[in-house]
Amino acid sequence: MQKTVQEHYRDFDQNNIQDITGALFKHSQDKARGSTHTNVPEKLITNLVNDIFGAGFDTVTTAVSWSLMYLVTKPEIQKKIQEELDTVIGRERRPLLSDRPQLPYLEAFILEIFRHTSFLPFTIPHSTTRATTLNDFYIPKGICVLVNQWQVNHDQKIWRDPSVFWPERFLSADGTIDKALSEKVILFGLGKRRCVGEMIGWWEVFLFLAILLQQMEFSVPFGVKVDLTPIYGLTMKHPRCEQFQAQLRFPRSG
CA-based, 20 to 30 A from 198: which of 81, 100, 112, 207? Predict the structure, then answer.
């Protein structure tokens, strides 16, 4: 990452910003010139770019990618989401963030993707700043602690049939989201040290999926078995599906 940032710096032109790294360079220079509107020291740019890609881009694209793979294996769920989108939004405009409260089934689907895949199985490492006791377990000061998010999301004491993918579990009798149950889904960590990008991550996944599913139909050829065995890493990925297909749901206007 340091090498990539240095290459960007050599080609940097403050009058022609090409990407997020260039934007950070410009903010850094503004700071050096005495601007009070920014706060990006140059020495932190590499760390910032690393965080943006690792915590921001990779996680969101992984969530969207898993969602599309589940949709091609469960076309009946894809159809339900698209029917909701057609009813609430129609086809004359694109989905907006303000549409989210009127699209409970899409939100329930996203919650179930977060829970069932648990593609971030553990939080990033944290450390205790003092000795503490949690549920009768003594944890000394300075101990590395990780939250086992996968286990929480598949705990039979919390979830009915946790191995089953079932978005409807998050819908109340009146069709709205069951807030108490939705808050039990753990993907962004716990407590005051949870992911600071949780809200924007949620917004991005919602908006990308809403736009994609309004415009496109996703499928695999009949008889193709989709492999959803996770590939372990910082985030869990699904194997590449060479037979994945996408086509427009309706002709483009104009």
Answer: 81
Buried b (16+ CB within 10 A) or exposed e, 169-197: bbbeeeeebbeebbeebbbbbeeeeebeb
φ/ψ of 7, rounded to 5, equals -65, -40
CB distance 167 to 109 below 8 Å? yes
Domain 62-248 has CATH 1.10.630.10: yes
Give the pLDDT confidence score for residue 156 in this predicted structure: 96
Any residues with CB less than 8 A from the CB of 240 and at least 6 apart, and which? none
User: Which DSSP state fits 35?
Assistant: -
| pLDDT tens-digit readout, 3-35 | 888 888 888 888 888 888 888 888 777 655 655
Domain boundaries, the chain: 62-248
Backbone angles phi, psi at 177, to 5 degrees: -75, 135
| Residue 202, φ and ψ in degrees, nearest 5 | -60, -45
Condensed to tens digits (0 to 9), the pLDDT of residues 169-179 reads 999 999 999 99
Give the tens place of pLDDT for each residue, 46-66: 888 887 777 778 889 999 999
Residues 92-113: pLDDT tens digits?
Answer: 899 999 999 999 999 999 999 9
